[in-house]
Design brief:
Blueprint lengths: L2 H13 L2 H8 L3 H15 L4 E4 L2 E4 L1 H24 L7 E7 L4 H15 L3 E7 L6 H4 L3 E6 L7 E8 L1 E5 L1 H7 L5 H5 L2 E4 L5 E5 L2 E5 L2 E5 L3 H9 L4 E5 H10 L3 E3 L8 E7 L7 H14 L3 H4 L4
């Protein structure tokens, strides 16, 4: 039985349709359809009921999906065992933040592809919170403070940030000097997040309010330089603006605690070797990198 056909069926079953599975696999819809038809012909049963909204598993498809997924996982494990130590094959789907992923993480992924010419790397750049399991990603690179979840995380480097505002905003509204003052200023945020500040060894949580929100760090930099409010942003996004004077650090007596860059993967006993190698490469690049951790540090 063709392993590619099995993998394709599992992707279609998990993605809920041919189009979504084709996007995950990086192949055309016609190839996906041909593989499915070939698999159904070999089994002699219909696995998927095609609808206008996608594809739904038949009773036989529900039963077969779990067996097919286990078979694919076992084949992948065997390939890792018998493949030469330095050689990676297959496909790696990774979600990366848009704010500085293209500038800071893309070169690392490109280097991984250069070192492993048989490996396919498919990257999605978005500041949206990607559901790794539902959307079929092998892993994600996430930056900041991690929320509790059933996903497995590995820290690959530090991320430092600061509170900043434009000189015009400070001239008009003043610079906050305490957490209580910060709470009443106009905040530039991604959503409804809380801000954390360090008072010595004590962590203080502030819930800011503001009218300007964006799910992208670069957009928040633009809002801050325009004088719309105070933003908490990583140094790698604000360094050049602080150097030029377009942004000014505020609340320096109460700095935010260091955040981190993490590789997140779905739960499982052991990560695939391609994920382990990505983690090693990110650590190699990120730990000593002042341009990522914070240019002043």
């Amino acid at each position: 039985m063709d392993i590619e056909a099995l993998q394709t069926f599992v992707e279609v079953a998990d993605a809920g349709g041919v189009s979504a599975a084709a996007l995950r696999l990086g192949i055309s819809k016609s190839i996906v359809s041909r593989r499915l038809l070939r698999l159904e012909a070999e089994l002699g049963v219909q696995l998927l009921a095609r609808t206008t909204r996608g594809a739904a598993l038949t009773e036989a498809g529900v039963t077969f999906r779990d067996y097919a997924a286990r078979a694919c996982a076992e084949i992948d494990a065997v390939r890792e065992m018998i493949t030469p130590a330095g050689d990676l094959r297959g496909r790696l789907r990774v979600a990366v933040p848009l704010s500085f992923g293209p500038t800071h993480f893309a070169p690392i992924l490109a280097e991984m592809a250069r070192r492993h010419p048989q490996l396919q790397i498919h990257t999605c750049y978005s500041d949206r919170f990607v559901d790794l399991v539902a959307e079929g990603y092998d892993c994600a690179i996430r930056v900041g403070y991690l929320q509790d979840s059933n996903l497995i995380a590995r820290r690959v480097g530090p991320i430092y940030g600061k509170f900043v505002a434009s000189p015009d905003y400070i001239k008009a509204h003043g610079a906050p000097e305490t957490p209580e003052e910060l709470a009443v200023h106009e905040a530039l945020m991604q959503g409804t997040e809380a801000w954390q500040l360090m008072d010595g060894d004590k962590v203080i949580t502030v819930r800011p309010q503001g009218r300007f929100k964006a799910d992208n760090g670069i957009a928040l930099v633009a809002a801050a330089t325009a004088g719309l409010g105070i933003a908490y942003l990583p140094d790698c996004l604000t360094h050049e603006y602080v150097v030029s004077g377009a942004l000014v650090p505020v609340m320096t007596r109460y700095p935010p605690p260091p955040a981190g860059a993490y590789v997140i993967r779905p739960p499982g006993q052991h990560p695939a070797r391609k994920i382990r190698i990505l983690i090693e490469l990110l650590i190699e690049y990120c730990e000593p990198a002042p341009h990522l951790a914070g240019a002043e540090r």
